[in-house]
Structure prediction request, 459 residues.
Amino acid sequence: MSMNEKIFYIKTFGCQMNERDSEIMAQSLSRYGYIEGMDMKEADLVILNTCSIRAKAEQKVLSLLGYLRKTKLSRPTMKICVAGCVAQQEGVRLIERMPHVDLVIGTQNIYNLGPLLENLDNEGSRVITTLWDDYDIPSFLPSLPSNTRSESGAQTTSPFQYSKFVTIMQGCNNYCTYCVVPYTRGREISRNVKDILEEVQILVKAGVKEVTLLGQNVNSYGKTNAVTAAGDPYTFSDLLRDVSNVDGLARLRFTTSNPKDLTDALMRSFRDVKKLCPQFHLPVQSGSDRILKAMNRKYTVGQYLEKVKKLHEYLPGIALTTDVIVGFPGESDEDFQGTMNLLEEVRFHGSFSFKYSDRPGTRASQLVGKVDEEIKSERLALFQKRQDEISLLRNSEYIGSVKSVMIEECNDNVAKGRTDTNHIVHFSDCAGCMPGDMVKVEIVHAGQHSLKGKIDEIS
Ligand code: 5AD
Ligand code: SF4
Prediction:
């Protein structure tokens, strides 16, 4: 490390969108004399890339900031930057409450982190949270390990990742009544096709095998702004086809989707685009039409089930996962029973389930009929218990089958990888396999959250 290199440490909360944003910030910093460190307490710059989707996520950030206040007392040169959704939402209020925070940077301002920090040294602004309704999402070429080496060539802290995220859009126009995202991430903007394809090509050339296309609602890609140079109509299914044509790419995934925008063309992509993995995260949120209406989801349970049926027709064996909120304002026992019934009907491979929490500025936060915390906890426990049972049954269906697995880690002859259905598989005797390798594994045991296998062959 050269004398003037500074160490930064990023902690990421929340979604995959944030994970990708953290990489972008890391990259911006690497051009300004920073290298990534492993120890928050030793860093010259600590960045918290925050999430405010639920009250609990926000509380985690605030308590870590409290802890950092003490660290900073003993190391006053340490700079603290808050980025992401809490930064966007709280803006100047954050600095007022937490004067030890040096910089608050909004969700669309991360691309300039390096210059903004330099500015800070010259008495520049400490709060930058501008949200534009329309802008070209800057092309930040993927941060591969070689980009983040220090001047002296010291090894970066992050190992090469064979699976990478590519942001294809930002923001959201849906205004689900419980959701803070339209306020923290702004209006929906799709990135140019050309930039996306270029990014995927560079990743693949560097050795990446799998990409996940990211957006708050990828199904409406290309709807709100032109994405081709000529301004021609272009949809998310077109993008899937074009990305999958990148030579050398093995697997393609995407997240996340709103069922209301799930077109037949997109469902057919699961049958027709061979590299598209047979796995689909399709958040349903509730199994009650009344609650779905109050959530402004714009589909009914019947329409959701119809789409699930079609997906199974196009691709038998597709692994479906979902998000569910329990205890939305006004949710009765009967409404909740609707969610349980839906779980029985679809038998999701897995789900993320949450207790509803009020978020600032959302329409649901103004609703009457808030559900007691205790009832929310009871409903969540019931839902999760049944989901765990179903996940185990679903996973058991794989026992005896041979799956193609991409290795993520391999230590002491024990490997961990993922199937195309996004199931984690552990196995031993991996015969010298390396991260990034595709191997054939016979599934011999199923747990609720992962599978165990026996190596079949290295392809
Ligand atoms: N309360 C609880 N869960 C929420 N989610 C979004 N907003 C809220 C909220 N206010 C959940 C939804 C969404 C997931 C990312 O977080 O299920 O799909
Ligand atoms: Fe959290 Fe949503 Fe922001 Fe992602 S976009 S960090 S999930 S609030």
Remarks:
- DSSP finds 13 helices and 19 strands in the chain.
